[in-house]
Amino acid sequence: MSPFLARLEEVKSPRIGLGCMNLSHGYGNPLPEGEALHALEAAFDMGYRHFDTATLYGATANEQLLGKALAGKRDRLLLASKGGMAIDPGLGKKVIDGRPDTLRRQCEASLGRLRTDHLDIYYLHRLDPQVPIEESVGSLGRLVEEGKIRSIGLSEVSAATLRRASAEHPIAAVQSEYSLWTRNPEIALMDACREAAIPLVAFSPLGRGFLAGAVSDCADLAENDMRRQMPRFSTEHLPHNLQQLDALRGEAKALGVSTAQLALAWLTAKGNDILPIPGSRSVPHMRENLAAETLQLDAACVARLDAMMTHDRIAGGRYTEAQQSEVDTETFAGGSPSMPTTS
């Protein structure tokens, strides 16, 4: 068993974990510290045991939050962070750097912020095209030997990169965007993970709020909300994409659940090796998401959901061209269409 899965079992974690980025990064201004700490403490109390953060989030502020909120609870949870992508204070912008010395320095700094002597899993946040994956993973392997991290993860990598990395050191989990409207892992990555018995941690499983019905107009998003730059949320494409939610709403209504719960249940129905980590700033939404753990879908429902929001039905790419250049994941032939070929 993957050491990642073994740890989840040890702490009796639900299949659904908590992505903590939203509290500090990406979707407008950070939540005030007091509110963020309350949300994290409430998440633990309601049953979350898998907490996911990164050096990048809030330029280290998110790790500091978790360090404060989870103090005294460390032995009862799985703590995940990521390195290799961070805000450079001198440049004031994001930098991808997978060099061994950088990964060691960032990991050790993360341990301090998170108030722990080890991480259960530490992900390479992005593949650095200037550094062979074997070098980055080899340096993380040395951190495993020193006990600073218990296992190695990769984020936003292709099947080919995963296989190269696995030849250097065992990989405990792979993190990738996966949801009803982002099916890229189904191209090749899921097969590669299953060949090596590596679980897939699905980030943005609610389509950055889209599948929860949280975004109806791009103009309503904060000026510094990252979704304003994402093609699928643009004024050109969002109206069309919103039409694709109608069928999901119908299924959810028939089951007496929210669209968010149905989207999460679809992921967990894909296999015990698929682990969603939805993020939220709202304690009620955290509770709603976690409740999807008990929702069992029959094969016919899963098949209907499979047929919804396939890549040819969604308008716009998940990333801009510049953002896409930063990830190593497979894309569908021809990329995401500017407008879908079916409706």
TrEMBL record:
GO molecular function: oxidoreductase activity
Any Pfam family: Aldo_ket_red
Region (Disordered): 320-343
InterPro entries hit by this protein: AKR (IPR020471), Aldo-Keto_reductase (IPR050791), NAD(P)_OxRdtase_dom_sf (IPR036812), NADP_OxRdtase_dom (IPR023210)
Keywords tagged on the record: Oxidoreductase
GO annotation, cellular component aspect: cytoplasm
Superkingdom classification of source: Bacteria
Entry annotated with the keyword Oxidoreductase: yes
Protein name per Swiss-Prot or TrEMBL: Aldo/keto reductase
